[in-house]
Design brief:
glutathione transferase activity; 4 strands; 9% strand; alpha+beta; Glutathione S-transferase Yfyf (Class Pi), Chain A, domain 2; 8 helices; globular; 2 domains; 204 residues; 4-stranded mixed β-sheet; binds glutathione
Length: 204
Amino acid sequence: MPSYKLTYHNLMGIAEPIRFIFHYVNVDFEDNRLDHTDWPSQKDNYPWGVLPLLEEDGRQLSQSFTIGRYLGKKFKLNGADDYESAKCDEYGDALKDLLNECRNLFFETDETKKTELREEILSKQIPKYCGKFDRDLVNSESKYLVGTTPAWIDFFVAHYLEFLETKIDEKFLKNYPKLQFFKQNIYNLPQIKSWIETRPVTPW
Ligand SMILES: N[C@@H](CCC(=O)N[C@@H](CS)C(=O)NCC(=O)O)C(=O)O
């Protein structure tokens, strides 16, 4: 087994679903968390000046979804064939579209504008994307988005649903029962549950 080192800020952020994957497959990795005060002086040492960075026997890989997909392939969490592998990518791209459409809210500082943006996200963007994830889960023959066992994208979707519950509305998933059930199933996988119970307490 290669040696793995995952470097990120001391946050859950966009690295947490990668940590989920390592814990789910029970593969050791160095969970390297940088102190934010050190970051400005270290930023230029990283290939794209951002984190996360995965190192596999010293070989570097950036971009959180690329890392997720790569580990999915390595650990056989990437669907049963090329089509299922592409479906993982499709859900990944749709998830990124949803997050992009919510992005302005997270940077808005004006409280009135924040309320307007939040309402718009809840009435437009969330139904547009979560309605479709929910529909596909209704049609799925398993509890997962792709195939019959967890795939790398399931960890990403579940993690970002938790993020949206925390940042936008803790109850929004009740409108999407299958998606809510899906997220609970991922969070209740024994390896994920155990990691969540013991992980460092950090901000998002
Ligand atoms: N598309 C990249 C985004 C990476 C990114 O923006 N990382 C942020 C943290 S979430 C970062 O390291 N920001 C520090 C900086 O820009 O100085 C990915 O998915 O990995």
